[in-house]
Amino acid sequence: MTAFLYPQETVSRRVVDISGLWKFKVDTDSEGRSEGWKDGLTNTTDMAVPSSYNDIYTDKALRDHCGDVWYQTEFLAPKEWQDLDVLVRFGSATHRAIVWVNGEEVASHEGGYMPFAGKLNDVVKFGQKNTLVVVVNNELSETTIPCGNVKQYDDGVREVKPWFDFFNYSGLHRPVKLLALPKQRITDMTVLTDFEGSQGKVDFTIEADIPAGALLSVKLYDADGKQVSQGEGTKGELQVDNVNLWQPGKGYLYTLEATIEKEGEILDQYPLEVGIRTVKVEGTKFLINNEPFYFKGFGKHEDSDHRGRGYDPVVNLRDMELLNWIGANSIRTSHYPYAEEFMQLADRKGLVVINETPAVGQINLLPFGGDMGGAFAMLGSGGSNQVQNFFELDQVKSKGMENHKDAVRELIQRDKNHACVVMWSISNEPDTTHEAAGEYFGEVFDYARSQDPQNRPMTFVNVLVAPHGKCKAAQHADVICLNRYYGWYMMGGYEMRNAGKAFAAELSSWSTEGKPIVITEYGADTMAGVHKLPSVQWSEEYQIEYLDQQHEAFDGCEALVGEQMWNFADFQTWEGIMRVDGNKKGAFTRNRQPKMSAHYLKSRWEKIADFN
Ligand code: GCB
């Protein structure tokens, strides 16, 4: 089952985090499903939850394992929970999982970055220890989101080939929690916010199973805990005098507390943080609270040493601190939804977020066996016409589209209330060079728009092989988001001196669309500590000269409303000749220390106002 309300303890709700060291077993011979491993694992090792399982042990076969891995833990279900609904909730399992408790299946989920839950009441032993077993699988295909394939070698070993430039980290990446909730309860809350002058407005819709004779009420509190408004029923509008708006850099949050009460007794209560703000696109402007906003920041990854993509509040806080230090006001959750806890921090810090689905790798690498190098060579020679377009594949139009819509729906359901989310990105760098892509994206954009109660702008991120005039999907987007590497993948080295002009020419062509443009990626791989005069590619000097060229192009483009450098920090990728122990385009190292470019960006961004 889906479980989008974030677990919070209240007077009526209990949450127990059961993350920690769990038992773990790699299913090397794919036998676990037929051999009954769901009933309990033998010969296990330890695994940290949450974490990726890939980078903890020294065994390459584990790091690069393709297929199933199994986890097990024990938990106690307190007797006091007998009259409640008891659930187990996973923040995510990458890319799919099945969960058993005491040998009975209680949950399964497809898609590696969304929460899901299972109800345990029929299988759990109250007052006793219970066994929880999970199988997590990391295989990818052209119809999964994200896309990839599985390659089998002559020796029988299989390998996942991701069709994207980051390591296919897998496992239980986010906290696992037991929830004890009232059987009749609040199941969803949706807010829409607006303001006029100093008068704020919060429209609320609450889904709840309300017992006969009980009453649902809401109270809105300011950040100091003072009640500022109240209402009754499942739908309504709250007025807020002297509103404190949620703003970039100033994440002011109210709390909307919903309560189900009967005869003075609270049956259920759930508090939701609410930032009051508006977002809209007008002409070539991106307006937050009716003022033209300029995005400064990065595309990021959930990625750090040892943890892989595993949630770590220390890393998240450090990242927030560095974003603030460098003068960034925004990020894109490239290339998948981030942990709920990250989104909450972004709300609180006033960090503006372009929220991306896990749709990445929507380009036909089947003829290349998933070899990204081969694909790059093809794209470089302008040859995406040589293979069938990704969106012409029958299985993509059917199963792929269905999975994509599921990913869009779940992301919007999970994050719809976050003030920090100002735009949805429904795909990163799909091959949009063919008519089929236009039809595909027409349908997915329509679907996405039908899902967002706040009606936020929708975009996707355009790839360099689909420039203006050739891209068949840009017509559906509210904002043009471009990933461009003038001076790195093209016009690199000595020729980089002309990169700015070439970029500017492309920008002026996109400007004719009359839509705002955000550069969602531009960057140059740079080895921290490599210095060279005159500069060469990979040196810190080159990265800065490269940035200068890009910024020259940006500053001359009226319709351009933002720059997000690739990447915030160095990150891990698949191994290969294109990457030196990962992608090195970070302004910060993987350890979150600055390269020269970080200081350079800081001095630029401190001079550019959030609104202009
Ligand atoms: C891109 C991708 C990103 C890569 C980046 C690069 O266009 O969107 O995932 O990491 O280029 O550095 O090649």
UniProtKB/TrEMBL annotation:
This protein's UniProt keywords: Glycosidase, Hydrolase
Domain Glycosyl hydrolases family 2 sugar binding: 18-182
Record Gene3D superfamilies: Galactose-binding domain-like (2.60.120.260), Glycosidases (3.20.20.80), Immunoglobulins (2.60.40.10)
GO MF assignments: beta-glucuronidase activity
Keyword Ubl conjugation belongs to the record: no
Superkingdom: Bacteria
Keyword flag Disulfide bond: no
Domain (Glycoside hydrolase family 2 immunoglobulin-like beta-sandwich): residue spans on this chain: 185-277
Membrane-spanning intervals of the chain: none
Domain Glycoside hydrolase family 2 catalytic: 279-609
EC number: 3.2.1.31
EC class (word): hydrolase
Family: Belongs to the glycosyl hydrolase 2 family.
PANTHER family tied to this protein: BETA-GLUCURONIDASE
NCBIfam families (UniProt xref): PRK10150.1
Protein name from the UniProt record: Beta-glucuronidase
Organism: Endozoicomonas lisbonensis
